Amino acid sequence: MQNSTNKQDTLAAINALVEIAYDQGFANGHGVGNQVGFVAGVMSLKAALACGLRHGSPECGKALESLKRIGIDE
Fold it and tell me: pLDDT by residue (tens digit) across 20-58?
């Protein structure tokens, strides 16, 4: 009976650790996904900003300059 209880306790501890690791991995993945989505969204706007700048919009020029400052200028 004692052996069965030890196995159950060990399994419960392992399950708790797996759940903690899963939650941490999910949170890390969610953060990375937000960053990738932000960069992809900004990249999709660059063509529109460039077109606005060509048509004389100073705000579009400021927006493109701010992208260069934060390192999204490729």
Answer: 999 999 988 988 999 889 888 888 888 899 999 999 999
Extract the tokens encoding 12. Answer: 């419960």
DSSP 8-class letter at 55: T
CA distance 26 to 20: 10
Say if residues 72 and 43 touch (Cβ distance below 8 Å): yes
In angstroms, the CA 18 to CA 20 distance is 5
Give the CA-trace dihedral at 50, 51, 53, 57, to 10 degrees.
-130
